[in-house]
Predict the structure.
Amino acid sequence: MSDILKAAAHPVVFPWLCLVLGLMVGSFLNVVIHRLPKIMERGWQEECAELRGEAVAPAERFNLFVPRSRCPACGHAITAAENIPLVSWAMLRGRCSACKALISPRYPLVELLGGTAAAWSAARFGAGPAAFAAMVFLWCIVAASFIDFDTQLLPDSITLPLLWLGLLVNVGGVFTDLRSAVIGAAAGYLTLWSVYWLFKLATGKEGMGFGDFKLLAAIGAWCGWQVLPLTILLSSFIGAAVGIALMVFARHGRSVPIPFGPYLGAAGIVALFWGPQISRQYLNQFM
């Protein structure tokens, strides 16, 4: 068994094994992205009905595992052979096997992102706790970003566990020391919280959601407070560039909200993998 583990941990083999794992996780991320907002909406409706004193009608059991995945057009249950990451979509030529309805290319894209995230983490950190922790971080960012794109919501069920997990990971100093992680979590939340209220007091409008505060707090917990300026600047730059491009090329109205979570997530990934090096090079220019 030890020989098998040594072979699996080999620098050449380990990223490929993690790629396969990541592709399977990416398939599950598609389920999370599709179902989690619906689960949240059902919960809100049930809570509102209870507050109004109305009886809640029994509904079909619906969570991340039940019922089986189905074609949204015809209800065809997806078989195991039709659920192989990347391969099934290619073999089906992007169409349902029953009704031939188009299957969005976003499904294989999310699977590919899940696999790439795992292989990249494995190649960057090697076989060890840092690689597996980085995989979880990236998978959560992918799921949260796509949900935010679709709904302008960053679920607490992703951001809060990600925050606490970051603190636990750094108890052992995997990415930063625990003191920097705790300060990073608090500073990340309070920074965007302050921006939110300053903008609201100045304009009477809400510039961002509370989920953005929690996501930046999670990034601070994983990477430490030292990379927060880089994360905020980079996410703002990416968000502004994308926003301008949407207004110019896609006729995206200024009043239409643009989710900020995906840009925070992208900046958080840069911070986790290269944040200390970038910050060090930046500070060296002024010392």
